[in-house]
Design goal:
The structure holds 2 protein chains of 2 kinds. By secondary structure, chain A is α+β, with helices and mostly antiparallel strands. Chain A is 20% helix and 36% strand. Chain A has a 6-stranded antiparallel beta sheet with strand order 1-10-9-4-3-2, with no helix packed on it. The N and C termini of chain A lie far apart (56 Å). Chain B contains 2 helices and no strands. In chain B, helix 1 runs antiparallel to helix 2. The two termini of chain B are 25 Å apart. At the A-B interface, helix 2 of A face helix 1 and helix 2 of B.
Chain lengths: 163, 78
Amino acid sequence: MDQQLKSDFPVDWEEDHYVSRREFVKFMTLASGGLAVGTAGLAVWAHTPRDHRTFEAALIAKVADVPVGQALAFSYPQPRDLCILVHSREGEFRAYSRRCTHLSCPVEFQPEHHRLYCPCHNGAFSLEDGHVLQGPPPRPLPEIMLEIRGDEIHAVGVKKAEA
Amino acid sequence: MKRTPVQFRRAQRATAFLGLMMFNLVLVVIQLWMFVGVLESLLDGRTTMAIPAAIGSFVILGINSWMLVGIYRMERLG
């Protein structure tokens, strides 16, 4: 232990171990390889299809429970994932994550403007595809994929939109 | 004091080596910058930068490897 310490931290400069120039270039090339593999890994991860994630279908509401121009809050796929179902036009249901992509404030339906609105920083999202209409949100709202089965509305998946 | 041709060649080689090392360092810093940039853009939900950065990173790795091989060859030749 003591010998090791003396060897690692010698008193005389001549006894110190220097990193040779070749060792330095070797180390840098190794680091370069690591970074290249890491960046390639990120690229693969980025292009792995995850846009349409399907989860177990969940019953949200009956068609009659949400009249035209009304909205309903629900959770999908986990109880903590707040969402909003909007009956914008006759027979046209849309559902989005309720969490604003800016700072996660809950968005609310504004029927008079036909949009989803975040009151925290005046952000607004389109009802058609969830894209940002105004304000600071950097990304569209993730869309909840719906299926109408008879008179029931079921959530079947989450579609994450690109920025 | 006049240097002999051998000493002169040695000094020249040392300067070239130092230049190579600095170039190597700059390339690795660029790679690091690209890696962090890709990571940040992915966390922000953008994926367009990932593939060009990966290609660029492998090009830099190629240059670095080529330099390392060149250094070994230079040492072998003396």
